[in-house]
Amino acid sequence: MAMTMHVDIVSAEEEIFSGPVEVLVAPASAGEVGIYPRHAPLLSPLKPGEVTIRNGKDERVFYVSGGVLEVQPHVVTVLADTAMRAKDLDEAKALEAKKRAEAMMKDKKSEVDYARAAAELAEAVAQLRTIEKIRKQVGK
Questions:
Q1: Got the DSSP string for 8-37?
Q2: Residue 13 is part of which domain span?
Q3: Do 77 and 14 lie in a common domain?
Q4: What's residue 99's pLDDT?
Q5: Which of 6, 22, 76, 86 is most buried, taking the most CB atoms under 10 A from its CB?
Q6: Is the pLDDT of residue 87 over 70?
Q7: Does one domain contain both 67 and 96?
């Protein structure tokens, strides 16, 4: 039997996942990190992207718009600004948000507008990548 750790993935609205996991992969601010049971304590900001959890051959993908990753020896918490199951992402909305952000970046009126547009663009692109990954998994 493989070792596991307890993982909680929560957003401001709801708890998305809670249970035992063998490995978690998350988009930390310094790059993607893989967390296994008994990992050293860690606290890291998260970028928009996908959080993947695995138990044996079972793999689940979630989208987070940013937040914080806290790792303790037997418990990992993903506290996200927004979190959702990848299968619940809306591709049409993500494409529209991407187009809107790109247009805002072209028509910038101030640095604040540009920074907000860049953040929205990063979030939309992360959602589209997550949708693409889910499609590839279904196609296997």
A1: EEEESS-EEEEEEESEEEEEETTEEEEE-T
A2: 5-86
A3: yes
A4: 72
A5: 76
A6: no
A7: no
Digit-coded pLDDT (tens) for 38-59? 999 999 999 888 899 998 888 8
Task: Kindly report whether the global pTM for this prediction surpasses the value 0.85.
Answer: no
Q: Percent of the chain beyond pLDDT 70? A: 81
Kindly state whether residues 55 and 11 are assigned to the same domain.
yes
H or E segment and range at residue 92: helix 91-106
Residues 36 and 96 occupy one common structural domain: no
Using CA atoms, how far residue 132 sits from 11, 34, 90, 98, 101, in Å, is 23, 21, 12, 15, 20
Partnered with residue 11 across adjacent β-strands are 80
| Amino acid at site 130 | T
- Cβ burial 17-46 (10 Å sphere, 16+ → b, else e): beeebbbbbbbbeeeebebebebeeeebeb
